[in-house]
Design brief:
- This protein has about 180 residues and is mostly helical.
- About 70% of the residues lie in helices and about 10% in strands.
- Strand 1 (about 5-10) and strand 2 (about 15-25) form a beta hairpin.
- Bound molecules: fe (ii) ion.
């Protein structure tokens, strides 16, 4: 006997005379619907689990792509810094020192890693405008004339002009060159 069905046995002196089965069709139908719904839910759960797995996989892939882009950006920054240093070997290493000192000050002020990296990159690139100054002036052994000195002073403005054209640098790093111009 189940919830859906009632069986009544009619006996006389221990002899089975008849057996009546009363079926509850409505209950049977409800149970069938419940089973169907449970199967649908199970399927939906499996689909959700699959979608979550795909999302996790995609997120992991995006992390890798992001790391690669970040590495490519940092390599570009280093190349720009090396080119700037090659233009002015007299001050080679200056950009790195400025970057590390600025980042150390930022760390002391409690800036987060993202902001510290921005400061470090700005330090690496803050003199990139020197690329526009003639080598003869950059490495002139004697005293600079007034016009040569003004040209040297313009390197921060020139650097800002270059950096602001770049999507990657315009917001975070060109600000540094602006502050150089103002100071
Ligand atoms: Fe500098």
């Amino acid at each position: 006997m189940t919830d859906e069905q009632l069986i009544v046995q009619i006996e006389k002196t221990e002899k089975l005379l008849a057996e009546l089965a009363i079926a509850n069709k409505e209950l049977a139908f409800q149970n069938q619907e419940k089973e169907k719904r449970a199967a649908e839910l199970l399927l939906a759960n499996k689909e959700l689990a699959f979608q979550n797995e795909e999302k996790t996989k995609r997120a992991a892939e995006l992390v890798i792509v992001n790391e690669r882009l970040h590495d490519a950006l940092m390599n570009t920054v280093r190349i720009a810094m090396i080119l700037s240093e090659m233009r002015d070997p007299y001050t080679a290493g200056h950009e790195r020192r400025v970057a590390e000192i600025a980042a150390a000050i930022g760390a002391e002020l409690g800036f987060d890693n993202n902001r510290l990296e921005g400061i470090r990159v700005a330090g690496y690139l803050h003199d990139v405008g020197k690329i526009r100054i003639p080598v003869e002036i950059l490495s002139k052994p004697g005293k600079l004339t007034d016009s040569e000195f003004r040209l040297i002073q313009d390197h921060a403005k020139l650097g800002y002009g270059h950096l602001r054209k770049s999507e990657n640098f315009s917001h975070r790093f060109s600000v540094c060159a602006v502050s150089c111009v103002k100071s």
